[in-house]
Amino acid sequence: MRIIFLEDVPGSGRAGEVKxxxxxxxxxxxxxxxxxxxxxxxxxxxxxxxxxxxxxKRIKEEQDxxxxxxxxxxxxxxxxxxxxxxxxxxxxxxxLQIAEELSRMxxxxxxRRSVQLAxxxxxxxxxxxxxxxxxxxxxxxxxxxxxxxxxxxxxELPEPDQxxxxxxxxxxxxxxxxxxDLAPETTATEDPAEDVIEEAKETIELNAADVQDxxxxx
Length: 218
Fold this sequence. Notes:
Elements: E1 2-5, E2 18-20, H1 23-30, E3 36-38, H2 41-44, H3 47-72, E4 76-83, H4 95-106, E5 115-116, E6 125-132, E7 138-150, H5 160-182, H6 192-212
Parallel strand pairs: 4-7
Antiparallel strand pairs: 1-2, 1-3, 5-6, 6-7
């Protein structure tokens, strides 16, 4: 199908360009999005105007992207990820995470396809990534990835025989302490009942003596 591009479509054509494309691609993608129109006589009459308008728009986009990459190149993208005891990330850091952080920093969406890494990042360190945008605008940014946390390896368990000895010793000490606490006191203590009996006996003896010797009262 012969069409005329109304907008720049990366990898397909530029605004004002007339090309032959597959009918399905034109009907299902380009035409519904107003990115292109059938190359009719009326549309062909608009080519020069389209090219001029697209040229102005393209220049503005290039200037905008140039300012963007200049802004981003001044910063270092800082990311963190959980790390295993072996020193490697559980999940690799990819262009997607970098693009998300760049979008936050730039306050505009950065497509992950614009971020190019030599390979996914599996270990903490400093890396570089290339940013490639439309109109040949590109730059290189620095990426620093740190460890979010290290999971400690479980402590080794003691040998079975050592565990049994420790338990036996602990139980023996506990039984010994309990026996000492429950043992009766060995020191002799006086019985208060015996004192009462002795006092009663003395009182009775004194009364009996008074009865036998009444002259003491006179």
